[in-house]
């Protein structure tokens, strides 16, 4: 844990925002977990769109309270337009000093959460070779047109495959291919008919629901309030403080 001689910069968790009311409830519960892990650290929430408070409003309120500095940690799982453009531009418009941390993924803690959610949904590691050869997992993500987002998701898929001992195929709800049904069919064409869908979403919402509905069998829940998520938010916060001059795009691939 980082030790401060003065008041620490505020941690501002930057969520995307969703029309699904479950998403906001989930994010607030996650922030409560972060506060419990780091008492005394000011933890706040800002959204890119769709939900209040919006990030610029959160930063303006912190400034009005006399907060000197804040670290913005994206509650996002890969690089993309929001991480590269939206959040830095909002941060640049703030009066207080800000640093933008890396997105959450890829990171082994996400694999911990993905594995746990699959296990909760009923996934069991194949006990024999025949079952292993018939098994596979689809990693269902939101999707992005940014190729670096795809790179990050692919890396998470490889880490999860190493953990599970079966192939893991990334799939996307929008803006990229393959879709979840396409990935399921691709695994079936390889003789892998025991397929689970791992939900690579931070909270419930339309994309997570649609991807789960396309699962031929087990579909795990979003990562949501799994303890690893709270630990990872704090890790990215601490990482940003240790390397303030490193651009967030470079930090995104660092564990």
TrEMBL record:
Lineage top rank: taxon? Bacteria
Pfam families for this protein: CbiX
Please name the InterPro entries in this protein's record.
CbiX-like (IPR002762), Sirohydro_Cobaltochel/CbiX (IPR050963)
Keywords carried by this UniProt record: Lyase, Metal-binding
Q: Which PANTHER family match?
A: FERROCHELATASE CHE1, SIROHYDROCHLORIN FERROCHELATASE, CHLOROPLASTIC
Question: What is the protein name for this chain?
Answer: Sirohydrochlorin chelatase
Which organism is this protein's natural source?
Streptomyces atrovirens
């Amino acid at each position: 844990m980082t030790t401060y001689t003065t008041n620490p910069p505020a941690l501002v968790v930057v969520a995307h925002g969703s029309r699904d009311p479950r998403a906001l409830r989930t994010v607030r519960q996650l922030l409560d977990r972060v506060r419990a892990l780091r008492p005394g650290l000011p933890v706040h929430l800002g959204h890119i769109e769709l939900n209040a408070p919006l990030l610029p409003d959160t930063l303006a309120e912190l400034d009005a309270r006399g907060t000197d500095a804040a670290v913005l940690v994206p509650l996002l799982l890969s690089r993309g337009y929001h991480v590269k453009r939206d959040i830095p531009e909002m941060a640049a418009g703030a009066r207080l000093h800000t640093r933008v941390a890396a997105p959450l993924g890829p990171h082994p803690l996400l694999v911990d959460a993905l594995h746990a959610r699959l296990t909760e949904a009923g996934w069991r590691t194949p006990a024999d070779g025949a079952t292993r050869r018939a098994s596979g997992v689809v990693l269902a993500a939101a999707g992005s047109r940014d190729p670096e987002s795809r790179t990050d998701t692919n890396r998470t898929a490889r880490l999860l495959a190493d953990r599970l001992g079966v192939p893991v195929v990334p799939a996307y709800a929008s803006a990229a291919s393959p879709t979840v049904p396409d990935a399921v069919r691709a695994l079936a064409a390889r003789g892998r008919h025991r397929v689970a869908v791992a939900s690579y979403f931070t909270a419930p919402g339309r994309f997570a629901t649609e991807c789960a509905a396309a699962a031929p069998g087990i579909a795990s829940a979003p990562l949501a309030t799994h303890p690893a998520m709270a630990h990872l938010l704090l890790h990215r916060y601490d990482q940003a403080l240790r390397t303030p001059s490193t651009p967030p795009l470079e930090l995104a691939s660092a564990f």
